[in-house]
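Suppose you are handed only these lines of text.
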Amino acid sequence: MKIRFVLNGENVSVESSMTRRLLDVIRSDFDLTGTKEGCSEGECGACLVYLDKELVNACLIPMGNVVGREVLTIEGLSNSEEYKRVEKAFIDEGGVQCGYCTPGFVMSTNELIKNKKDLSEDEIKEGLSGNLCRCTGYQSIVEAVKKLSGEGSNNG
Ligand code: FES
Ligand code: FES
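From them, the structure of the protein bound to FE2/S2 (inorganic) cluster can be written out as follows.
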């Protein structure tokens, strides 16, 4: 059946069953391969996308839940100024190695810093607890988010 929804600001439609995963539709039907598949079980955060402005794991979302709703992937987010700040901080702090987990971390970071400034290390770790990385040892990613969350505050 035809399923209509909004993808990165554009009205789109796709032939799909209601049970197909949003992750597969994004990657296979729309070639938006920035959204990654890691665990396929909602544990690693590699497949994070916004669904109506709420972060969700696309590997757990059937297309039946997407009808008429708004999806924003890392490609859509990458047009924003916010994304460029996050990207720079991750690169500057060495928070990117193989890069497989990076889109998911960027989505979580975007969510974290848009909601609150001057995050403590514990708040950052809690905010990133749904994302797994096999390469960086995490501290460089935490440092990147710390830097971002302090920007625009008195701490500079
Ligand atoms: S692939 Fe979706 S959370 Fe890991
Ligand atoms: S940078 Fe390789 S999995 Fe995170």
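What can we learn from it? The chain has two domains: 2-77, 81-150. Residues 96-101, 133-136 surround FE2/S2 (inorganic) cluster (ligand 2) (CB under 6 Å).
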